[in-house]
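Support case: FE3-S4 cluster complex. Customer-provided input:
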Amino acid sequence: MKPVVINSPDQTKERKRLDKDNHFIDYVENNKFKDLGKDKKYYLYTYGCQENESDSEKIRGLMESMSFSKCDNLDETDVILMNTCAIRKNAEDKVFGELGRLKQLKRKKPELIVGLGGCMAQEESVVNKILTKYQNVDFVFGTHNLHNLPNLIARVMENKERVVDVLSYEGSVVENVPLVRESNIKAWIPIMYGCDEFCTYCIVPYTRGKERSRLPENIIKEATDLANQGYKEITLLGQNVNAYGKDFTDRTYDFADLLNDLAKINIPRIRFTTNNPKDFDDRQIEAVKNAKNIMNAIHLPVQSGSNKVLKKMNRKYSKESYIELVDKLYKAIPDVSITTDIIVAFPYEDDNDFNETLDLVKRCKFEGAFTFIFSKREGTPAAKYVDENITEEIAYQRLYKLNEVVNEGYKNGMMRFLNKTVKVLIEGRSKNQKNVLMGYTENNKLVNVLGDEKYIGQIVDVKITDAKTWSLDGEIVNE
Ligand code: SAH
Ligand code: SF4
Ligand code: F3S
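Agent response - structure generated as follows:
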């Protein structure tokens, strides 16, 4: 079937920031689609970062506003939606692998509808590949017009068309999109969309568009409503939360202002991710320091400990300024847990550069890190960098070596809580042991405790009795 291409992604346009103005609009539900999904089910795959998890809550909200009900069994579903991630090649391989498997299901059940959205949908090469090689995908929807999902699904169902609708310019900031949250204890709150950094390895500025901040009044209202509903924790989301508000043209209001305002709300725990060292300023540190309900856990991706590599990555800060920021954080908030992201085997990274990264990890006393081997992303500047000295073997050696050092940091970060009593937000039952509860400390450490279900959703005092590399064991005190 020939696809109907309403809009298709174009990386050249995505690189430019075409839409210079911020537009704020309210989602308007189309009553026409209210019963479209009556007696029908949808199955949702979510890959990628918290931003995608948050988008998936909107996808659920949109689907359920059309009366589709969620199902967990592929054999029973009428619609399959994939919310995908493009950050590294292996993230995309997973999706293509799954799409391959779904071909069989579609053969068995030709009326099944498959839609692919998220960051992969924003890539020209992916959409071309899907149109030619994955006939089982019925429609492709982008990240900027997620709220348009009902129209697209209606079109596919009613006209039996194959449709592509992916915008190459950033859409509006859309408020009041219906959502179904995954948890009634913790909630995501996106505070901004997009990214203007253009780190040379990264696909996100292309797939998510220009930086656009939500208005503070809408964020504060959402947080207040969540607190009133009994939520215990909110996590503010953005690719560079420290740049929040820089795009406002009608007001001066930044991330520190937002933190100060949110701290006044009666919600026990506020987190935020992710931070860009270049925009993390002193007022933001003060805000975290002064607010009891802003948690002492900061994720501060460094990517590399070598100035040469940082420059090639276009990270816009130096090793020295990064260390200075980390020192300031430890000084202002002595109890803080700092974690990071690191890429190894970036083109032109030699042994010296890599050793500088190892030194930095030790120096900064990270209590955790996500570590990655550089992955070429088509259309990004670094995809054209050629360094024949870095073989796959060297890349893996560096990753293993780095992980050894990182794991020591994890362990040290856990050990410092041994025999201490800490506050744990109990989230649910442990996956592996049925009679064990799990939750996180203020410093974001996973804790397992024996206890009754009645504690789920509560913040309890826990005495830590054992510290492992990835988790703590403890006992609830003052029962
Ligand atoms: N906006 C966040 C990061 C989002 S992506 C920030 O700037 O910190 C999460 C992590 O994936 C990045 O921090 C980086 O470590 C990693 N990453 C991004 N692109 C990558 C690539 N092409 N290859 C390997 N790792 C990558
Ligand atoms: Fe990617 Fe850099 Fe933006 Fe993070 S700050 S999303 S790594 S371009
Ligand atoms: Fe992946 Fe897109 Fe997030 S590329 S990491 S899902 S912003």
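The first helix runs from residue 11 to 15.

Case will auto-close in a few days if no follow-up is received.
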